[in-house]
C-alpha cells in the first residue's frame, strides 16, 4: 500500500514539473510572456511588436457639376449663386456665351454658348455634369411661347438623357386657371416639357411649379424690388390654402414665393439623390426651402 502511494506521489511530482516547464503564455499588460524560468532565456517569449498603421491620404471626391440653363436670368442667376455657395461646380448655357454681368459670382460660372433649338450646338455642354436645372422660358406669341417653353426644354431633356445625366430639374409654373387660356402657348409648352421630363427621367426628374416669383430683379442697370409686393402677398396667401380649391378664382390665389426659396429647392432637388421625383407645387417649395 505504501509503495503504491509513493508511486502516485512521484507521478504527480513529475507531471507538475512537466507543466511548469512548458511555455504557457501569460498576458501582462500589452505584452505576452512565458512562465518558463528566467534561467533559460531561450524559452522566454519576445513581446509582440505592434506596427503603427500608416495614414493613408484619400483624395476627396470632386464636387458635382451642375448645368444651369438660363443662368443669366432672374431665377437662373439665383440658382447659380445658390449652387456656388453650396460648393458645387456650376456651368451655364446661353446663346451668347458669358453675359455682361458685373457681379463676382458670374466669374465663377463656366459659361457655354449654345442654342437649345439647335441640339448639335449644346450637346458638349451636357457632358460631365451630374444634373441639369432648366429655367428657360419666355413670353410672346403662342407659337413663340410653345417653342421656348416647350421645344427648347424638350431638346435639353432628351440631350441630357442621352448623355446619362442623373437628375434634371425643371422650373415650370403653377396653373392659374383662366390665365392658362390667355397664355395658351406658354402653358402648353410647359406641360409638354413636363411630360417629356417625367418620361425620360422617371426616377431623377423634378418639376417645380411656383406661382409669382418675387425678389430683387436686375433689368439692365436697374434693380426692381419685386419683394415689396410679393412678400406681403405670400404672407397672406400661404395660409389660405383651402381657398385655392374654389372654382374659377381658386388658382388665382396661389401664393407668391421668393426667388431664394426656388433656387434653394432647385439646387437641393438636383443634388440630393433621395429628393423625391415628380411635381412640387408652391406649398411644397416653401416647405422644402425651410428645411436644413
UniProtKB/TrEMBL annotation:
Q: Where is the NAD(P)-binding domain?
A: 70-215
Any Pfam family: NAD_binding_10
Entry-linked InterPro entries: ComplexI_NDUFA9_subunit (IPR051207), NAD(P)-bd_dom (IPR016040), NAD(P)-bd_dom_sf (IPR036291)
Q: What is this protein called?
A: NAD(P)-binding domain-containing protein
Amino acid at each position: 500500500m505504501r509503495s503504491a502511494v509513493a508511486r502516485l506521489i512521484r507521478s504527480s511530482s513529475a507531471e507538475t514539473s512537466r507543466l511548469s516547464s512548458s511555455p504557457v503564455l501569460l498576458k501582462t499588460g500589452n505584452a505576452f510572456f512565458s512562465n518558463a524560468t528566467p534561467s533559460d532565456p531561450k524559452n522566454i517569449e519576445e513581446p509582440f511588436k505592434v506596427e503603427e498603421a500608416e495614414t493613408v491620404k484619400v483624395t476627396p471626391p470632386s464636387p458635382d457639376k451642375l448645368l444651369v440653363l438660363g443662368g443669366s436670368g432672374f431665377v437662373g442667376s439665383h440658382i447659380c449663386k445658390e449652387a456656388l455657395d453650396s460648393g458645387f461646380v456650376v456651368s451655364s448655357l446661353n446663346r451668347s456665351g458669358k453675359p455682361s454681368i458685373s457681379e463676382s459670382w458670374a466669374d465663377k460660372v463656366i459659361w457655354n454658348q449654345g442654342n437649345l433649338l439647335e441640339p448639335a450646338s449644346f450637346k458638349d455642354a451636357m457632358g460631365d455634369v451630374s444634373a441639369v436645372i432648366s429655367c428657360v422660358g419666355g413670353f410672346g406669341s403662342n407659337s413663340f411661347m410653345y417653342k421656348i417653353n416647350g421645344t427648347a426644354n424638350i431638346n435639353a431633356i432628351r440631350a441630357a438623357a442621352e448623355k446619362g445625366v442623373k437628375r434634371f430639374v425643371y422650373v415650370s409654373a403653377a396653373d392659374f386657371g383662366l390665365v392658362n387660356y390667355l397664355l395658351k402657348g406658354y402653358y402648353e409648352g410647359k406641360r409638354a416639357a413636363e411630360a417629356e421630363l417625367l418620361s425620360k427621367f422617371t426616377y431623377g426628374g423634378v418639376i417645380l411649379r411656383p406661382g409669382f416669383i418675387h425678389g430683387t430683379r436686375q433689368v439692365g442697370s436697374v434693380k426692381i424690388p419685386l419683394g415689396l409686393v410679393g412678400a406681403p402677398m405670400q404672407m397672406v396667401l400661404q395660409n389660405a390654402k383651402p381657398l385655392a380649391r374654389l372654382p374659377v378664382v381658386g388658382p388665382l390665389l396661389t401664393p407668391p414665393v421668393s426667388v431664394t426659396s426656388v433656387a434653394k429647392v432647385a439646387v437641393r432637388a438636383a443634388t440630393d439623390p433621395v429628393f423625391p421625383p415628380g411635381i412640387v407645387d408652391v406649398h411644397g417649395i416653401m416647405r422644402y426651402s425651410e428645411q436644413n
